[in-house]
Design brief:
single chain; 382 residues; alpha/beta; Aspartate Aminotransferase, domain 2; Aspartate Aminotransferase, domain 1; seven-stranded mixed sheet; five-stranded mixed sheet; 14 helices; globular; binds pyridoxal-5'-phosphate
Length: 382
């Protein structure tokens, strides 16, 4: 499977016909336990927190599409992140991106800090900031690129060199790019994390997370955490993500095309102040985006010239095709207000420090007809 091109891998990875029945699609193994012919004698499945055949098929698919060796599926994206932090001990330090998903920041600051893990937030778009924050206790570097919602890009290869020198694990949240646009393991990362809820699932009908890695020992440690802590996804949800992955290629192609159209439309709009999208040649990290990504996806944010909450609210509540909702990466377009919705868990001063202003509007551009999406925005922005 690893010799095939990505579009083929997306369809076939992990999907062997069911040996018992010949079913082309992996069945939903809705079972909690498996019969043993004698104590300890089983067919590789004992109890569904530890192993489930639907989950196994998905985990194999995840490994293949991210060019990894092992995949692990979790009950949510934050559960996957939680498992990575549980590799650490009290006193260990994590260097993390200053601008990232609000729920990741909340997990780090509100849950793990009290267990004695120290998080240092830096602007990772400049690798020298990461280097400067390294200490003897640095055990993990956590990147998100592109970032949610400001679309900043960090050079994964350059940070991986710093991580290796420091003996730290590099984990990259690849949710925004999806494996279709970026493969962090190829760029030197040790672990790739996904909120499968987003582009992998692709239809806004499931909550799930994933970790993918090459290293056998890291897989053993993370599998031990997965089964010991128990944040595993159910078989129905694994089936849905497996199904979503099959169309990731065609969906992402359209997300990218529509993203280009909407980004340029907004940039030329008289009432728009700034568009945050990494596909513009004058984006500060455009060179790196071009180098490490195969396209720019369907995520972008923008501010109006009237950067007040009231003006943003008017747009947020006027679109019809763009539904006002958290989340992203589904086939349908969504509009979001990070300051009050997805990133409300980050204190306002912290948000403003990284440029996440009260008036910022985030779009997840879906795969509808781009003309209709632009007409919808035109009516709302006025
Ligand atoms: C949504 C999201 C998460 C969290 O994933 P859940 O599936 O909601 O738990 C993490 N990182 C990014 C970039 C996200 O967009």
């Amino acid at each position: 499977m690893n010799t095939h091109k990505l579009a083929t891998k997306l369809i076939h990875a992990g999907a062997e016909p069911d040996p018992g029945t010949g079913a082309i699609m992996t069945p939903i193994f809705q079972t909690s336990t498996y019969v043993q012919s004698a104590p300890g004698v089983n067919k590789g499945f004992e109890y569904a927190r530890s192993q489930n055949p639907t989950r196994k098929a998905l985990e194999e698919a995840l490994a293949i599409i991210e060019n990894g060796k092992h995949g692990l599926a979790f009950s949510s994206g934050v559960a996957a992140t939680d498992a990575v932090i549980k590799l650490l001990d009290p006193g260990d330090e994590v260097i993390a991106a200053a601008d990232m998903y609000g729920g990741t920041y909340r997990l780090f600051t509100k849950i793990f800090e009290k267990f004695g893990i120290k998080f240092i937030y830096v602007d990772t778009t400049d690798v020298s900031n990461v280097e400067a924050a390294i200490s003897k206790s640095t055990k993990l570097i956590w990147l998100e690129t592109p970032t949610n919602p400001l679309m900043n890009i960090t050079d994964i290869s350059a940070v991986s060199v710093v991580a290796k020198k420091a003996g730290a694990i590099l984990c990259v949240d690849n949710t925004f790019a999806s494996p279709y646009l970026q493969n962090p393991l190829d760029l030197g990362a040790d672990i790739v994390m996904h909120s499968s809820t987003k582009y992998l699932g692709g239809h806004s009908d499931v909550i799930q997370g994933a970790l993918i890695m090459k290293d056998d020992k890291l897989r053993e440690q993370l599998y031990f955490i997965q089964k010991s802590c128990g944040a595993v996804p159910g078989p129905m949800d694994c089936f849905l993500v497996l199904r979503g992955i099959k169309t990731l290629g065609v969906r992402m192609k359209q997300h990218c095309e529509n993203g280009i159209r909407v980004a340029h439309y907004l940039r030329n709009h008289a009432k728009v102040e700034r568009v945050y999208w990494c596909g513009f040649e004058d984006h500060p990290n455009y060179g790196i985006a071009k180098k490490q990504m195969r396209g720019f996806g369907g995520m972008l944010s923008f501010t109006l010239k009237d950067n007040s909450i009231e003006a943003a609210n008017k747009v947020l509540s006027s679109t019809k095709l763009f539904s006002l909702a958290e989340s992203l990466g589904g086939v349908e377009s969504l509009i979001n207000h990070p300051a009050s919705m997805t990133h409300a868990s980050i204190p306002r001063e912290e948000r403003l420090k990284v440029g996440l202003t009260d008036g910022l509007i985030r779009l997840s551009v879906g795969i509808e007809d781009a003309d209709d999406l632009i007409a919808d925005l035109e009516k709302a922005i006025g």
